[in-house]
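Exercise: predict the fold of this chain.
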Amino acid sequence: MDARAYLEERGLLVDRFLEAALPEASSPPQRLHQAMRSILFPGGKRLRPGLAFAGCEAVGSPPEVALPLAAAVELVHTYSLVHDDLPCMDDDSQRRGRPTVHLAFDEATAVLAGDALLALAFQVLAASAGERTLAAEPGERTEWDGGPVAAIDLAATLEDLAASAGSTRLVGGQSDDLRFTAGGPDEAERVESVHLRKSAALIATSVAGGARLGGADPETVAALRLFGEEVGVAFQIADDLLDQDRSEPCSLVRVLGSQAARARSETLLDGALGRLRSMGERAEPLRELARYAVRRAQ
């Protein structure tokens, strides 16, 4: 399986969904909606949606079942990029080959665009199953356009997505990243703690949530969450290996050096792949996406 081809194919699914979910650029307030669309289309690799689809397929369900989650995690991820790029955060000038939102529009519009993308993530996920699923008894499965979804699965997925975006994970990881101080015997451990929250939490939610919506049992969901966490940390190490020109204090490349950091990413990848050993061919997209995410710099 070719990971890039898989992401491109599944990316079309999520792009069509997002295109329908976002207000038109001409809809008031126009400047806000233009800013939201400018960062969302064209998108990046759509890795997190791809992992949500692959998690769903790994447990035997069609990818469309995970489509609302795939859209939601991409919206959360994109909101985080808009805010991370702000002058008060990382102060970046380019994103996805274009000027960052605060430069293309203005800082206030960028803040509001990020806010609106985050809110839309929960709107599309909560609305995905419709009133019938939300009104169902816990564990009862009802039909919607994408396939069978359980009310209890939707509630758990919403809670997990909210937690992954909150103060103990993504936002907390960014807070500690901004204030990271080098040195100390626990430096590498502290770096990985930031990576686990800022980068890996949403990746883990993508995989585990896709599997949950696909009907996976709690043990499988838990195993795939650990898979996602290990892949997510390794993914961030790979990003740092790709961008060694940037002076980032919170980086295993700086702490360990390139060779040892790459070895650590491979150890994490091996551990993650080991969690899929019993899942058979249906998990092959997950395996290939993990390898692609970690080894794309090599």
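Check your answer against the key: Residues 187-213 form the longest helix (27 residues).
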